[in-house]
Amino acid sequence: MGLSYITTTVAEQRALQKLSPFELKNTLISLAENKAGKSTEIMLNAGRGNPNWVATEPRDAYFLLGQFGVAECRRNMADNHGLAGVPERSGIADRFKAFLALHKETPGAHLLQQAYLYGIQQHKFNEDDFVFELAEGIIGNEYPVPGRMLAHFEPIVHDYIVQEMCAGEVTKGKFDLFAVEGGTAAMCYIFDSLMENKLLKHGSRIALMVPTFTPYLEIPQLERYKFDVVYINAVGQTKEGRHSWQYPEEELEKLKDTDIKVLFTVNPSNPPSRAIAPTVMDKLATIVKKHNPHLMIVTDDVYGTFVNDFHSLLSKIPYNTICVYSFSKYFGCTGWRLGVIAVHEHNIYDKQLAELPASAKKELAKRYSSTTLHPEKMKFIDRMVADSRQVALNHTAGLSLPQQTQMTLFALFALLDKENNYKQIAQQLVHKRLKLLWDKIELEQVDDPLNTGYYSEIDIASWATKIYGADFCKWMQKKMEPTDILFRLAEKTAIVLLNGGGFAGPEWSVRVSLANLPTDSYTLIGESLTEIMHEYVSAFKEETGKN
């Protein structure tokens, strides 16, 4: 049968492989759209991790709270052609309770009632102060004060971070939180503040646990940073010779190098979607404690909620760790841009600031002198807040109040879901899709409780070797480019996947997002991958005469 013709040449594939996977995706989408336009095929873009579900109850609560907020504005000043006043603190809690009683059958009312009680009972909030913050938050009539995060919202989101990132285990002390415009902004702020505060410098040695989200690979190469990157590779294998996507001890040993200033990790990983195993985490913690106690760690834990009893490095090594968490994937809110940076109140960052040379301290004191009379006492997380607005605009820093309000309602929704009903449904959905995909692939899926199921990284070379033999795999790798299968999928079946090599994973691998397509689509993706593999095998047999 041989290989069917595709329009993208080998030379074009080689050139396009140099792009970020998210840029290569645009070419694949064009090919897939062209195929869909000329046939009855529907384009299936499994290249992006935007979920196709949403959390409804916290959104219902948000919009109902909005009605209360607007009513409060009109109460304070009669509405005149669309102009009204602002919420008033005195007696607002009683008015809120009356409003909820009037709307008790309205979607979202129950969550608002429970949210109110949570703040009063768990944190002993003053009733009027808490409800006033909710009302001003939903209306958005004030600047964020404090700029890092609102006073009543921070402890609630703190509870959520402890529940979901630390499996409910409270460490000694607490975490300081900075509400930010999604995980994207968190990355920008962290990289910038580490540089601005001289904890990193141009050319510093850093470590990346790979495979990983491509910006963590690309940002260190920018001219501003030009970091010396050490890769910690997830090359662990199961006893059957399959990828475990864990980090062998010899890879972790690289972190004993005290010239490595920062370790960046995505946990659970993207795209292998594996949480760091407890044994690996223990080895990592031991290496940090015994050999590299000044190592700074930045962990991006957006997928942690898709693993039961998840433990972030924030819970294991809190003194050294900055945690980035985004609400986008779990609650289906990528468009909201909701994220938080968590740093323990006692941390290596503040310690290293205190140990900087006198000349560096003097320079930094000048940088932050407009924000405080004692810049030398300014914590690293507060410097991040100032840096996020070029210091001079520190007085207007902070995530918008409506965003903070929705974030807090998402957190409360999860905190009040004592039976984890939402979590179970979300996890079951992605794992159902994962099973449908792998049921159509000739390799057996590896059963792993640390697998989130949010993405799946399929190693084409491993598939080729284990099912059709080493000779076939060598032939395929000689005749094809690693992205050939992606172009064939796009041109033949209007399916878009991403190249795993672009995430520093195996070069001959593809990434499938299990989050963003109708569930039955994953059967078709598995079938299409297998069909193209059979094309390769047929061409191999024709050329070599082997059966």
How would you characterize this protein structure?
The chain has 22 helices and twelve strands. The strands form three sheets. It has a seven-stranded mixed beta sheet, sandwiched between helices. A three-stranded antiparallel beta sheet has the order 9-12-11. Strands 1-10 form a two-stranded parallel sheet. The longest helix is centred in the last third of the chain and has 24 residues, at about 520-545. Helix content is about 45%, strand content about 10%.
Describe the protein's topology.
Layout: H1 10-16, H2 21-37, E1 44-45, H3 57-76, H4 92-102, H5 109-123, H6 127-139, H7 153-165, E2 175-180, H8 182-196, E3 205-210, H9 214-218, E4 228-233, H10 249-252, E5 260-266, H11 278-291, E6 296-300, H12 313-316, E7 321-326, H13 328-331, E8 339-344, H14 348-354, H15 358-368, H16 380-387, H17 401-416, H18 421-439, E9 455-459, H19 460-468, H20 470-479, H21 484-493, E10 495-496, E11 498-499, E12 509-513, H22 521-544
Parallel strand pairs: 1-10, 3-4, 3-5, 5-6, 6-7
Antiparallel strand pairs: 2-8, 7-8, 9-12, 11-12
